[in-house]
Amino acid sequence: MSITLRDISKALNISVSTVSRALTDSHEIGEETKQKVLAYAKEHHYVPNRMARSLKVGKTRSIGVVICSIDNNFVAQMLDGIDQICTENGYQIIIMQSKESYEQEQACINLLHASGVDGIMISPSYQTTDFSHLKELQSQGFPVVLFDRISEKMTAHKIAANNLSGAYQATTHLISNGYTRIAHLNSNATLTTTAERFEGYKKALEDHGINYQEELVAFCDTAQQIDQSVADAMEQLLKQQPQAIFTATDLLSTKVLAYLMEHKFTVPKDIALIGFSNSDLAAVLNPSLSTVRQPSRQIGELAAQTLISLIKGKDIGPEETILLDTELQIRKSSGS
């Protein structure tokens, strides 16, 4: 049988109201008392009555998380970071998937809001260009945080990787290995992520005196028929005889490597390859895949911390965009 607030109160010789405030991180309670209460509650496996508390204070201590798809290693790593921060702060998370559909994203947001979550963090779908459904919630004072996929069309706290810098580093690495005919394969989604990685690629070429060639760039539909889209794009790019390819998403990186091997190309002898990927398989592929690794877990942690601060009414300043550094991981696929 789990202990109650009254049990903790008697054991520590403090009032029930003090125990309650300490467990909810109230600023009215001193740090020493908070730590004493939290330690006792943890030791004796105290479980809060969420339903009773939500009825009393109008809070459910639950957070809605909307992502594109859960079957993605990068997304899973972000969710792990979100879950840890929420658990540490006494919040539960409700995860919903948009499946890259704007209509489904709207349905997810409506359902989460109707269920009484205290705030929502969202990585928008590829199809999302209209953010009115989120702006409407904000106008009601409802906390919303964007993470990973962000947009200039909405004013909010946003946390993402520095995609432009990561793409610049990847392209510069290929250039430093002697490649000048560098192809770029990207998603056709209207996201800042897509645009920033494309801009990073072009800027690296420009800064190193290499002319940008439109015929060395292709965009794939990564929401539907990905295999056929990649095959069509690769057929187009290979006609231009590129020396190397920079792919801009986790999915494209592995799909292109598989395509090249299937068509008897030796990587990196015939063509070098580098991509954006957080897959643990990158290091064990043959050849091992050079990648730009994103700070996925840190993105999730910071997004969760930001949303919880907003829910608690803390003054964290005006809405801002925080871009976290990527890491270039050099392996065999990008050449010597």
TrEMBL record:
UniProt xrefs under SMART domains: HTH_LACI (SM00354)
PROSITE patterns in the record: HTH_LACI_2
GO molecular function: DNA-binding transcription factor activity; transcription cis-regulatory region binding
Keyword vocabulary terms for this entry: DNA-binding, Transcription, Transcription regulation
HTH lacI-type domain span: 3-57
PANTHER family: HTH-TYPE TRANSCRIPTIONAL REGULATOR GALS, LACI-RELATED TRANSCRIPTIONAL REPRESSOR
Protein name per the record: LacI family transcriptional regulator
